Fold this sequence. Notes:
By secondary structure, this protein is mainly beta. The chain is built from one helix and nine strands, in the order αβββββββββ. It has one domain: Lipocalin (Beta Barrel), CATH 2.40.128. The protein starts with a helix and ends with a strand.
Amino acid sequence: MKLYKLVLLGAFAALTACGKPVPPEKSAYVGEWQDKTMYLMITQDGSVKYKRLKGGQTTSIDAPLQGFKGNDFDVGLGAMATTFVVSKPPYQDGEVWKMIVDGQQLTKTSE
């Protein structure tokens, strides 16, 4: 039984590590983005962390990047994947980088 659990744990770890790196043309997406109710971190190697407070409930994701479709990007594995809708991709507003994801305007707080 212990061997079975170790195999499952190893398989899960291997799957969660299978994020796709952010392509060079999307490098502006890499970094930490946030506003008062949402946090999003995208790393160059394809790891994504997300947390959002909405209607008194917290939603969080810590999963691999599966790829981009236009400005939007998919995160997760199989049926557990979700699409982040980017209505305005990263842009500079003066000295500050911003983007609009799932209807929220986020500000880049670090690379």
